[in-house]
Amino acid sequence: MLSKNASLVYGILISAGPCTVSQLKTRTGLSQPVLSRALNEIAQYSGRLFTHRQGRSIVYAISKAIRSLPHVLPVYQVARTGSAAALGSLMALEGRGYLFAEASGSSELYEGLPWFLQDMRPQGYIGRAFRDAYAPGLGLGNNLAQWTDDDVIYALSQFGEDAPGNLLIGDHALNRFLALKEAPPLGAQQLPAHYDALADAAVRGGAPGSSAGGEHPKFLLRDGERNLIVKFSPLLDGSAAATRWKDLLIAEHLALLTLATCGIAVPPARIILSEKRCYLESERFDRMGAKGRIATASFEAIDHAFIGAHRNWSESAVKLHQLGFITAECAAQIKLVEAFGRCIANTDMHFGNLSFLWNRTASTLGFNLAPIYDMLPMLYAPEKSEVVERIFVAPREGESAIAQEAARQFWNELAAHQDVSAGFRQIAEANFNLLDK
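User: That's the sequence. What structure does it adopt?
Assistant: Structure tokens below.
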């Protein structure tokens, strides 16, 4: 049993969450020596008292178990070679928040999931497949938006061995990762039929893969040492919406090729046409070889953690550069990509559609722009299976000359692409002429 003073302090830490010594003294009215004895008593009694240095202050917190998980949950980082090593430990805290203690000895308090775990949260098209496959057995609800951070941690600790990025939460996820076997390579001749089967399974609700974000229908697979993310069109039944999505996937591939000519990193990608669907196959930039992985984080997670502005890519990139997280060259690349997006009618450049590769040493944290994805003229995307006529207003003043020239190249090549429908080729030609004035 705890003493009266220790019970008082313990109750405050349970209900209010992490507190500094000053906050505890104010709440309890206890002197420093009495408070210290109470904290020592709590540590011996519970085994769940943790400390974190925040500037000159020491923060005290009580850890809690998430369901059947241990109070201290190991987090592993997978190297590019495929080997896994401890990155640190994650503790959910009573009252609110999480404490992440790095293996190096430093620690950090977070109100919610740490920024480097945010993108592992199941989301988008594949996230819903993950939910359908695992939520019933985990006792989790059908609405991903209502999953708490604790729910996400529990789900990832059980089935997060193939989540985006290079982190694994808990020993169970680590063991599932270690048990992954190398996938056999697929022959080129069998690809269209194989992709048709995978797309049909994804539509029905098949293997979930990892929780790569985005609403466009897609599936994930491993082809030998290649790790792929494959977007697909609706069945090409002659409907205007299906034809338009085929056109947009081809446009997305062409946009990647165009950006590559500007010195911007893009993933290796290709278009595969079957008798049933159009596929845009891209190599995942968070994977390397059979089991290697690369640390990634979306601009959404990074902006929320370090800036909180969410104005546009370029402005947040300037802030990241001012904070010393990215180079001036990286900020300039982001500005160019965003300008190119405006010039090709990409109306969906939200912060989840740009990512970074990250690296942390003992003293620094740095980000580099990841290969570009989801860059396409979304102005022309069907609305609820209907193709709606929309007018592109070309941006002019202040746009990068390089971006405008790249966009002209994009529209010109799209207008001449034989696999694009006649109607969309006309749109591309009109937009080329608009930018050429």
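The chain has three domains: 4-61, 73-179, 182-436.
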